[in-house]
Amino acid sequence: LWPLKFLPIPNSQPIIERNVISENFVEDERGGGIFCYTDSLAIIKSNIIINNYAREIGGGICLWGAEAFIEENIIANNKTLENGGGIGGIYSVLNIFNNSIVNNSTGYMGGGIHFVHEDGYGYNGFMLALNNIVWDNKGESEIHTRGPFTIAYNDISRSEFCGQKGNICANPFFVDPENNNYHLQPNSPCIDAGDPNSPFDPDGTRADIGALFYN
User: Fold this and answer.
1) pTM for this structure?
2) Is residue 6 classed exposed, middle or buried when 0-12, 13-18 and 19+ CB atoms within 10 A define those classes?
């Protein structure tokens, strides 16, 4: 066998669905769990992305000049020394729907999500974050944004977005977060609190906030 170098995903359209992506380590680059760049269009859905590390940006997921639909994932306990412990998006289009982004950490900005929209070289971006739990992430901010964005109907533990556009800042009452069980307890304020224009949950009720709906 010979040493392998795992490269980021450029100019492609990957569907990354129903995987456990865990215990990956990138010492001097970006995207500990997933790294998409250069005009990629990714669907990242219903994964468990946990305990990954990247030195620069995006301990769990990094997008660089790309677009992604990031939906219904558990993104937890990821780490980076710089920005974006859970998700880092640079010059990218981020559609972030119904994720539980919990207990990620960074040395600087955006413990949960870090987003920068342009670099002066023609790359531009936008972030739309709906129905996410962004909770107990470590860093100078829970969500850091620089550029156009919409952040609505999320549960965010510490943020200037609380009380605006349907965002709440209330304990989501996970079943057992210390053991990575991010289901909601019956008294969770996230139940039936998502965007009323979102598709209904499988039980026929208004969308819950977070990756795992309460039946």
Assistant:
1) 0.92
2) exposed
